Amino acid sequence: MGGINPYIEQAPYTPATRKYKVSFTKCGKTVEVDPEKIPYGHDGLPGSILDIALGAHIPMDHACGGVNACSTCHVIVHEGSESCNEATDAELDQLDEAAGVTAKSRLGCQCVPDGTKDVVIEIPDWNRNYAKEAEH
Ligand code: FES
């Protein structure tokens, strides 16, 4: 899917202008993000955690295609959150639907680091997308 959700305010963000790293704790992978290569795909905001994860072939559920209309891309930002855009009210409303939300929770499709810090991300083991599509 992918695209833009016309029913919500679009999240403002500052695109990264220099290389930085995103570490995914559960899978132990660290990705060097190159602003020249953003967007890596077409799901989520360009340069979002979802975009970066999918570009590095790290599985992350994203049932709505990254348009802030589900909560399956829930992530926990353990480090570097100060370099990420602010969550909008629409994101926080959607995040309320996620299980196990913490003060560091974000939607991976809406969270865009600006590249001034390295970022550490946890993709929770659980989510509410019980009906997963097969890999294609
Ligand atoms: S993929 Fe649906 S809200 Fe992020």
Topology:
Elements lengths: L19 E5 L4 E5 L15 H7 L18 E6 L9 H7 L9 E3 L11 E4 L14
Parallel strand pairs: 1-5
Antiparallel strand pairs: 1-2, 3-4, 3-5
The structure holds FE2/S2 (inorganic) cluster.
What can you see in these coordinates?
By secondary structure, this protein is α+β, with helices and mostly antiparallel strands. The chain is built from two helices and five strands; from the N terminus they run E-E-H-E-H-E-E. The protein has helices at 49-55, 89-95, and strands at 20-24, 29-33, 74-79, 105-107, 119-122. It has a five-stranded mixed sheet. Strand 1 and strand 2 form a beta hairpin. The longest helix has 7 residues, at 49-55. The protein binds FE2/S2 (inorganic) cluster. FE2/S2 (inorganic) cluster is lined by residues 62-64, 66, 68-73, 94, 107, 109.
> Unreliable stretches, pLDDT < 50, 5 or more residues?
none
What distance separates the N and C termini?
Answer: 13 Å
Oligomer: single chain
Calculate the mean pLDDT score and round it: 91
Helix content: 10-25%
Spatially, the strands of the biggest sheet line up as 2-1-5-3-4
**What's the order of the H and E elements?**
EEHEHEE
Structural class: alpha+beta
Unique bound compounds: FE2/S2 (inorganic) cluster
Strand content: 15-25%
Largest sheet: 5 strands, mixed
Task: Produce a short descriptive summary.
The protein has 136 residues and is α+β, with helices and mostly antiparallel strands. It is 10% helix and 17% strand.
